[in-house]
Design brief:
By secondary structure, the chain is mainly α. The protein folds into two domains: 224 residues, no CATH class; 264 residues, no CATH class. The protein contains 20 helices and no strands.
């Protein structure tokens, strides 16, 4: 049954990413038409400023997944109820306090990076952004409770509903209220998903009261002890995406921030297509640690082989498709979008390959190397972003961000392989090396597109033809890959055999 639930969770995670990606495609296309790329850049900077207050969460969302999974394995429903109540009460009070204290700082930060002509609009959006974020924190706690029960499939339904609701509300409110309409959308969307998450969680855990009211000090201390590393990670994340956007606003332009937001969100959705399915192993690993820790190494190796098999071709295909995506999404081949997308995608590809080791570390509760990775990413991004931004403008900032991400992420997989005696050669699995070579060739040809001497690759028709050829070549190799049969076997074993027993 557990294997079947993991497969259901993985399938729903993939469906979630597809639905959210589709909604974002239409949302950003619509916002570009109604508001323009500069206002999209303003919205992105406001959200980046708000997200800094995530540090007040104290890593409680990650702690909830770990501790709920533990007590699910021990069948202690009362403890699960206390964990969720304690975490939600603490998170709401702490984050609310930080939001109130940090509001003047956020106004000051926006004044540094937003042009004076656009600053009044940005400042008027800030209170609504803060309120929406506060609601989102509570939602995250409740959905972590679902994750701990390995009901990630339910969370996926909630997130898909939220994405569709956001799109509908944007069509309804943006024409009337402009960019302020997106602030209203954010509050309504987060409140609806918050209420739905709590109601569903109470059905799974009947011991939960109508409103969280029980605070267990000893559990809180235990969760904070585990969540301290999550807290540090949240603090370090302040120096990645928010800093990157701030540097882009300072050394680039609002248009660059807008195109960065679009490219980065698109790439993160593709990454989520892979990582969300892989993330379902966290509660499973937490359970294995309690009953069968010797199986963890085997689970990791299988997970990494699958990740390499999927991530390398999918990211490569996305990079090759950037000119076509730009034409369909923006209305023309925007060279700034294509160039930034290529740089960002390479950084996130390297980060994605470390996901299996990252999540195993989360599952077993050993977060030291995860923290070291985030520390390195934050330090490199802050230092290199400032230096390259001053000398090379916005593209220098994006290059620094991608480089920091790739270098810092490598720490996790290297440490895990060394600790568990996994050969370095396994970082490029033998059965996927042909796929890797083809992807390197495809990426090399995409780099040629940046040179003016290759007009065929720079044209819309040439880009579409190249994409089709690359896609067909990849499809042939992936179809004959041994991992394909393994995946089909998992699906048959996980769904059909489990279903026949029920």
């Amino acid at each position: 049954m557990q294997k079947r639930q993991i497969l259901v969770n993985s399938g729903m995670s993939l469906a979630q990413v597809v639905v959210i990606s589709g909604s974002l495609f239409f949302l950003y296309r619509y916002l570009l038409k109604i508001l323009g790329v500069d206002q999209l850049g303003i919205w992105s900077l406001v959200l980046a400023t708000t997200s800094v207050t995530q540090i007040a969460n104290l890593g409680l969302s990650g702690s909830v997944v770990k501790f709920v999974a533990k007590y699910v394995a021990l069948n202690d429903k009362q403890k699960i109820s206390e964990i969720i109540q304690t975490a939600s009460i603490a998170a709401l009070i702490l984050v609310g306090s930080v939001l109130l204290a940090g509001y003047p700082v956020a106004r000051w930060a926006l004044g540094l990076v937003v042009p004076i002509t656009s600053l009044p609009l940005a400042l008027s959006l800030l209170p609504y952004s803060f309120l929406g974020f506060w609601l989102m924190i509570a939602t995250g706690i409740f959905q972590s409770g679902l994750d701990g029960h390995q009901r990630i499939d339910i969370r996926c339904w909630l997130l898909m509903t939220g994405a569709v609701l956001q799109l509908f509300l944007a069509f309804l409110l943006t024409p009337r209220f402009g960019l302020m309409g997106m602030a209203y959308v954010r509050i309504i969307q987060n409140f609806v998903i918050l209420a739905a998450s709590w109601l569903i969680l109470r059905k799974i855990v009947p011991q939960l009261p109508s409103i969280p009211r029980r605070f267990n000090r000893s559990l809180f201390k235990e969760m904070i002890g585990y969540g301290a590393n999550f807290q540090l990670i949240a603090f370090l994340n302040m120096f990645f995406e928010p800093v990157t956007k701030m540097f882009l606003g300072k050394f680039g332009s609002l248009a660059m921030v807008g195109y960065y937001e679009m490219a980065n969100r698109m790439i993160q959705q593709v990454r989520a297509l892979l990582v969300s399915a892989n993330q379902t192993i966290v509660p499973a690993i937490a359970g294995l640690k309690e009953v069968s820790p010797e199986q963890i190494r085997s689970v990791y190796q299988t997970s990494y082989r699958l990740m390499f098999y999927l991530a390398v071709p999918i990211f490569s295909l996305m990079i090759v498709a950037l000119p076509v995506i730009s034409f369909l999404w923006i209305g023309h081949i925007e060279s700034l979008f294509v160039t930034m997308g290529l740089i960002i995608a390479l950084g996130w590809l390297l980060n994605t390959l470390n996901a299996p080791a990252y999540f195993v570390y989360l599952g077993i509760g050993e977060l030291r190397w995860n923290v070291v990775s985030h520390l390195l990413i934050a330090t490199l991004n802050l230092g290199m972003g400032f230096i390259l931004g001053r000398h090379f403008g916005g593209l220098g900032v994006v290059s620094a961000s991608a480089s920091a991400l790739g270098i810092g992420s490598a720490v996790i997989i290297i440490s895990f392989s060394g600790k568990n005696g996994i050969p370095d050669s396994d970082m490029a699995p033998r059965d996927s090396r042909t796929v890797g070579i083809l992807c390197i060739i495809g990426l090399g040809l995409m780099f040629l597109r940046l040179w003016p001497g290759f007009p065929l690759l720079r044209s819309g028709v040439g880009s579409a033809i190249f994409l089709m050829i690359f896609f067909l070549a990849l499809s042939v190799i992936l179809f004959h890959h041994p991992m394909k049969g393994t995946i089909i076997g998992w699906v048959r074993e996980g769904f059909f055999k489990a279903t026949s027993k029920e």
